[in-house]
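Quick log. Single chain, no ligands specified.
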Amino acid sequence: MTGTVIFRCNVSASVGLGHLMRCREMARYLGALGWHSVLLGPPDSLRQPADEGLFAGWHSVEDRGSSDDDAARVLALCEAHGTRHVVMDDYRVDPGYQQRLRAAGLRWLQQFDASRPWMFQPDLLVNASPYEKRAQYLPWLAEPEHTRTLFGPAYAVLRPAFTGITARVDGRAVRRVLVAFGGGDDRGALEQALRTLAGQLGPEVTLVLVSGAGNPRRAAIAETVAALPAGQAEFHVNPPDMAGLMRGCDLALIGGGTMSYEAAICGLPTVFVGLAPNQERPCRGWQDLTGAPFLGLVGTVGDDRLRAAVSELVEDDARRRAMAAKGRALVDGQGTQRLTDALLERESETT
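-> predicted structure:
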């Protein structure tokens, strides 16, 4: 059986690019199965040459309008392509919106934001955060017997370069510290890291800062890095081999988004500073399961506290080694296949 899956994706400098990455990777897996994918939402400015082979259609949405307007947009695409399979990688799908999808008989997978629990009605409710448990969400499931919950890092969608990556050596001395906060606005996190950590972790330690091209603070960060003594910091914008760059680092200072799963599969010990309120629960989950310290949200963490937390890990080989092993045990790189097979009800074919 083959067909088409409609993806509704919300992505911007403020929201981040993780949603689009997940849609691309699911579309890649669907293509290998002979299915077509159609993307709704992201602006044309985010299209890459490889998207031509991933999506049979790319429909930008400049003005979302009301939930009713957007639901109608999704339903019209489903009708045009003769499909009932949908992936909603958009946290704005409120109960009224969901009711319209349910009434239309769609089978949909809903990625959701745990910071705003409301009534959920999808066939598949997904959150890869290590914090979420089905029991916590039973009061928020309109029909618990109808909605399957796919929670935890086993359902993390990763880019192909990470799924087969060779594990780094645990416990090695810290020489390179990754500092990255997604592909959009880092909200001052990179600037704080430079101010607090550059030249403060030892003469052999380099900060490896990574930003997306859409980060409005990018030029200022580049100027600051250029003014530092040689060897204190590097600045990479949309690096072509992010997996290789991460694997070459020894410690990470990151937010609680998609990169947290990439760090885990690389065995990269981590300090977390949440970029937005919806990252607080995932960061606390990582802290509980791996021991990775969560310091708080950007703008609430003092320079002294940040410096102390990173410095302590630089000096503690045993703690970093334990953290790396626990992270790798949680993420195996098969999340894309698990989610897609569940959406298409293929699991009986692949077990």
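The first strand starts at residue 4 and ends at 9.
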